[in-house]
Amino acid sequence: MPPLSSSYALVQQLNAEGNSNIFLYKHIPSNDVVLVKTIQVAAASLDKLTGDTAAFNEMHINNIINKHRHDGIVSMRDGFVANGALHLVFDYSAGGDLLTLMTKKFSASWAEAHAIAIFQQVVSAVNHLHGLEIAHGDISLENIVITDQRDAPISVKLCDFGLAIVHDVTRYTGVGKLYYMSPEMHLRRPYNAQASDLWALGILLFMLLTGRPLFEKATMLDPTFHRFFHAQASDPSTGIKAVLDASPHSSTSTLTPDAVELITRLLRPRPADRLSAAQVLLHPLLKCKPRPFIPTKLTRQRRAMSSPAPRHCHCSRAPVLPRLPVSYFKSITTTM
């Protein structure tokens, strides 16, 4: 691909998905390395972009975020149409994404040092978005980038607003990655996308603390979710415990009571019963930052696992790493 303009020089392509591609470019005037997302469009200029609904929506949401910046959200540096594509230019985070970091670094000591602080930063970003009437739609380890990992806690930012919506946050189709999708996303009925963001935060917190997803898919066809749902329906405080107790690899240890309570309140099956992001920020787990207890046998479980990605993932099987197999996390961004 040729340089975007006299201001940018191509470094390399990072990713391709659907009608969009991710590249690294060098911004020649500043010598900064930047990340550029290109989306194929029919429009010849920004003022004619409204006909390309998805591209216009992503540009519009990034413009809103730029007007109301937050330290925990990746901001857009530039946006323009050239060569039949919309180009969105962002600061590049050389630390990579959180999924990649966790596949290499996760351990009980890593979680103790970083999990709660990372989660607090993400919740703060989501709270800011919800205040702007934006629902992210794809909260996941892959969409959290590392900006500074020299000291504990790690500094992170939330990125990628390709599935975000603004103002009317009612949605009619499920989007995102299977591990994080809320139960209502699978029902093919209207749902509140901000409430689904909160569900994704609950899944994210469990993953940060334990190094594994809670279940593969939030439907009754998933036996782990089935167990969780019925336990929580009987007694809301027992849903997470039922999942942990049923696993031979984690039955000897538990998360802290505060962690279990917060995850449980984010994973209420009824969306209206979930804590808001503002309420999560006031929760004792985030205010006190206690040391979490990590199931002691999970490391052995990770080493034993060599299963492919979930059935609904059409991506190629990722290599199994010694601590945290990518195949246990990875699922493609899905629109149902």
From TrEMBL:
GO terms assigned for molecular function: ATP binding; protein serine/threonine kinase activity
Location of the Protein kinase domain: 8-286
CC annotations in GO: nucleus
Keyword Kinase tagged: yes
Signal peptide: none
Disulfide bond recorded as keyword: no
Cross-referenced Pfam families: Pkinase
Keyword terms, alphabetized: ATP-binding, Kinase, Nucleotide-binding, Serine/threonine-protein kinase, Transferase
This protein's name: CAMK protein kinase
